[in-house]
Structure formats: C-alpha cells, structure tokens
Amino acid sequence: MYSLFNKSDRSHSSEENSSDRLRRMSTLLHIYYVFSSTLLASCSEVMTFGCELVAE
Q1: For this UniProt entry, which segments traverse the membrane (predicted)?
Q2: What is the number of structural domains in the chain?
Q3: Which sign does the torsion angle of CA 50, 52, 53, 54 carry?
C-alpha cells in the first residue's frame, strides 16, 4: 500500500513539473514574440524612413 501511495505522489509531482515547464516555456515564447515583433516594427520604421530619404 505504501509503494502505491508513493508512486502516485511521484506521478503528481511529475504533472506539476510538466505544468511548470509548460508555464515557463509559454512565458519565454511570449517574451520572444514581444521582442521580435518590437524589433521587426523598429526595422520596418527605419526602412520606411530610409526609403523616403532615397525617394527625395
């Protein structure tokens, strides 16, 4: 009986670890998304400004 209880404890702990991993991964992906979209917006603004200078 004790080993069954211990085994279920381990699986619960494993579920928590995967949940924590998933939360960490989603946070990192969100940070990457915000960073890359901000960088892309900045680059496109610079390119637009550069094209306006060339056109003049």
Answers
A1: 31-55
A2: 1
A3: positive
Tell me the Cα Rg of the chain: 24
Tokens standing for residue 31: 């940070």
pTM of the model: 0.52
Helix (H) / strand (E) containing 3: helix 2-55
**Rounded average pLDDT over 30-54:** 85
Tens-place pLDDT, residues 1-26: 445 555 555 555 555 688 899 999 99
**Boundaries of domain holding 22:** 1-56
